[in-house]
Amino acid sequence: MRIPAGLERSAKLAKTMWSWSRRPVLPWKLTLCATWRCSYSCNECRIWEKEKRELPAAELLKCFGDNPPFAWVDVTGGEICQKPDLEELVQGIARKYD
User: Fold this and answer.
1) Residue 5: left (phi > 0), alpha (psi -120 to 50), or beta?
2) Which of 46, 47, 54, 83 is exposed most, by the fewest CB atoms within 10 A?
């Protein structure tokens, strides 16, 4: 269907407003940087230069406290398998979604 030239802008605005109304209720995604630890010294991310302070799993799990469940949780960081309490963190996140 061809839209008349004078209504093209209005049609784009209506389409945009319709797409906004169909978006999920925020917040819907959490990217959680669990650790800065990494055994590599790559020049791409240079995470090894960052200060190594990190929160324990119990503190990170407070992000989930009274918030509604996120549709997507991305646990990332340097090399997350080097986080000593990774198992506690993952189990705590999983409990939130049971």
Assistant:
1) alpha
2) 46
